[in-house]
Design goal:
The complex is a heterodimer of chains A (about 300) and B (about 160).
Chain A lengths: L1 H15 L5 E4 L7 E23 L4 E22 L3 E9 L5 E6 L8 H12 L8 E2 L5 E3 L5 H12 L1 E2 L4 H17 L4 H21 L4 E8 L7 E9 L2 E7 L7 E8 L5 E2 H4 L5 E4 L4 E3 L3 E13 L4
Parallel strand pairs in A: 3-15, 6-8, 9-11
Antiparallel strand pairs in A: 1-2, 2-3, 2-4, 4-5, 7-10, 9-12, 10-11, 12-16, 13-16, 14-16, 15-16
Chain B lengths: L1 H23 L8 H19 L4 H19 L6 H26 L5 H20 L2 H24 L1
Classes of the chains: A alpha+beta (about 300), B mainly alpha (about 160).
Chain lengths: ~300, ~160
C-alpha cells in the first residue's frame, strides 16, 4: 500500500512539473531489449537529460543520461526495459527551466504469441546473485553434469572474480621506499626528493588506481550447458573483458556480469549484440555515448538474435 | 637510535600499504573521501607525534600521506576523474589549512589540548567534505589556508 501511495505521489509530482512539449517518440518500446527513443521538445533540449524508469513498486531507476551542451530539438536515448518498469519519466535539468514528463513504458494490449513466448522465456531466466571475490579466476572450468541454473550459480561464485591490479600498490610501495630512504638522510635535497616523489606519485595514482570497467561472460552454446570452458582476458581501453567459452564458441545464450563505475563504461553492443534480448538483475544506465554503466555489479542473461 | 627510527618509519608505511591493500578488496566500495581524510589526517598527526615532528617536518609527514589519500579517493570509483581531482586537491588544501591554524594557535607547542583541537578540526573538515558541494568546500579550505598563511607570515615578520 505504501509503495502504491509513493508511486501515486511520484506520478502526481511529475504531472505538476510536466512539460506539454516534451515527447518520447520511437515506441512502442519492448521489454528485455535495448530500446531507442527520441526525446523531443519543440522548445529545445539543454542541460542534463535523464530517462528514469518507474517500477511497479514505486522505485526509480536511472536508465539513460546525457549532457546536452548545445540546444537541440531531439536527442536519441538508448535504454534497457523490462517488465518491472511501468512508466518512463523524462527529466530535463535545464538551468532555470527544469521540466519532466511521464509516459507509459510498454505498449498497451496483449503481445503477439511469439513476443509472449519470448517474454515468458526471459521471465524464467533469473539472473544469479554475484558473490564478488577477488583474484584471478580458474583458467578452465568443467560444467559437465550441471544444469543451466547450477552452472550460472557456479559461474557467478567461482568464475566471475575481480582481477586484482597490483600496479597501484607497487607504485605506493616504491614511494614508501623513497620516503624511507630519504628519512635516513639529513640533507636538504632528501626533503625535496620526498616532496617531488609525493606529488609525482599522487598524479600517477589517478591513472593507475582508477577502477576499470569489467565485463564477464559465460557462453551457453545453443542454450545448453557448456562442457569445459576456458578463460580469455581481453584488455580494451578503459575496460577488461573476461570471457569463458568452450570449444563450440559463442552464440546462443550468454550469462554476463558487469561493473562500470562513473568515468568508465562498456559499449552497449559489446554486452547486448544488436537484435539480442537481455534480462538484467537491475537495469544499468546507458550514457549518451552508448556506454553502459553500473556502480554495483549487475548480472544478466543475453539471448542472441535468431536463437 | 637511527635504526629504531627507521624501523618505526617502515612500520608507518607498512600500515599505510596494508590499509591500501584492504581498500582494494572492499566491495562495494565503502570508503568516502571524507572518511579517508579524517582517518589519514588523524593517523598522520599521530605519526608526527610519535616521530617528534613539528612545523615543516610535520607538514612533510602530511605530504607523505597525500598519495595514499589520492589512492583512497580514486580507487573505490564512484566519481568522475575531475571530481576525484577536486576531492584530492580539497583534502590537501584542508590538511594544509589545519596545519597552518594549529601552528598559528599552538605556537609550536604540542599539548593534549592542541591534539584534541587538531583531531576535531580534521573531523569537521571530513564532515564538510562529505556534505558540502566540492567547489564550496575547496573555496572554504582555500580561505582558511590563506588566513592561516597570512597569520604565519605576520608572525614571521614579528
Amino acid at each position: 500500500m505504501k509503495a502504491r501511495c509513493a508511486a501515486l505521489a511520484l506520478l502526481l509530482a511529475a504531472a505538476a512539473t510536466a512539460s506539454p512539449g516534451l515527447r518520447l517518440e520511437g515506441g512502442p518500446f519492448r521489454p528485455y531489449r535495448i530500446n531507442r527513443a527520441a526525446v523531443v521538445d519543440d522548445e529545445g533540449l539543454l542541460g542534463r537529460l535523464e530517462l528514469w524508469g518507474l517500477r511497479w513498486d514505486g522505485a526509480r531507476v536511472l536508465l539513460f543520461r546525457a549532457p546536452v551542451a548545445a540546444r537541440t530539438r531531439s536527442l536519441d536515448a538508448d535504454f534497457y526495459l523490462d517488465e518491472d518498469i511501468r512508466n518512463l519519466e523524462v527529466v530535463v535539468d535545464e538551468p532555470g527551466a527544469g521540466r519532466s514528463a511521464t509516459f507509459e513504458a510498454a505498449a498497451p494490449g496483449t503481445p503477439d504469441p511469439a513476443e509472449a513466448a519470448l517474454r515468458l522465456r526471459m521471465r524464467g531466466l533469473e539472473a544469479p546473485l554475484l558473490i564478488v571475490q577477488h583474484g584471478d579466476g580458474p583458467a578452465a572450468f568443467d560444467f559437465r553434469g550441471s544444469d543451466v541454473v547450477t552452472a550460472a550459480f557456479q559461474a557467478s561464485s567461482a568464475l566471475f572474480t575481480l582481477p586484482v591490479d597490483r600496479a597501484p600498490l607497487l607504485l605506493l610501495g616504491a614511494f614508501a621506499l623513497v620516503a624511507l630512504a630519504a628519512s635516513a638522510s639529513r640533507r636538504r635535497e632528501a626533503r625535496a626528493l620526498v616532496i617531488l616523489a609525493a606529488l609525482g606519485t599522487t598524479a600517477a595514482v589517478f591513472s593507475l588506481a582508477a577502477p576499470r570497467a569489467v565485463l564477464f561472460s559465460l557462453v551457453f552454446p545453443d542454450g545448453k550447458v557448456p562442457g569445459t570452458v576456458r578463460r580469455t582476458v581481453r584488455e580494451a581501453p578503459g575496460c577488461t573483458r573476461i570471457a569463458y567459452v568452450d570449444a563450440e564458441g559463442s552464440g546462443g545464450l550468454e550469462l554476463v556480469a558487469l561493473r562500470a563505475p562513473a568515468g568508465t563504461g562498456i559499449p552497449v553492443d559489446d554486452v547486448v549484440p544488436p537484435g539480442g534480448q537481455v534480462r538484467f538483475s537491475s537495469p544499468p544506465t546507458i550514457t549518451g555515448e552508448r556506454l553502459m554503466t553500473s556502480e554495483a555489479f549487475t548480472t544478466g542473461w543475453v539471448l542472441h538474435a535468431g536463437r | 637510535m637511527p635504526g629504531a627510527r627507521l624501523l618505526l618509519r617502515a612500520l608507518h608505511f607498512g600500515l599505510l600499504l596494508a590499509a591500501a591493500a584492504g581498500i582494494m578488496r572492499l566491495h562495494p566500495p565503502q570508503v568516502t573521501p571524507g572518511l579517508a581524510f579524517v582517518v589519514l589526517a588523524v593517523y598522520a598527526h599521530g605519526a608526527a607525534r610519535v616521530f617528534g615532528a613539528a612545523g615543516t617536518a610535520k607538514a612533510l609527514c602530511f605530504l607523505e600521506i597525500l598519495p595514499f589519500f589520492a589512492f583512497a579517493v580514486v580507487q573505490p570509483g564512484g566519481s568522475e576523474p575531475s571530481a576525484a581531482w577536486l576531492g584530492v586537491v580539497s583534502g590537501a588544501a584542508a590538511g594544509a589549512a589545519i596545519l597552518g591554524c594549529e601552528w598559528l594557535l599552538s605556537r609550536g607547542k604540542a599539548t593534549f589540548g592542541t591534539s584534541l583541537g587538531f583531531i576535531g578540526a580534521c573531523c569537521l573538515a571530513g564532515w564538510g567534505m562529505s556534505v558540502l558541494p566540492a567547489g564550496r568546500f575547496l573555496g572554504l579550505t582555500l580561505l582558511a589556508l590563506t588566513g592561516s598563511g597570512y597569520g604565519l607570515a605576520r608572525r614571521a615578520r614579528g
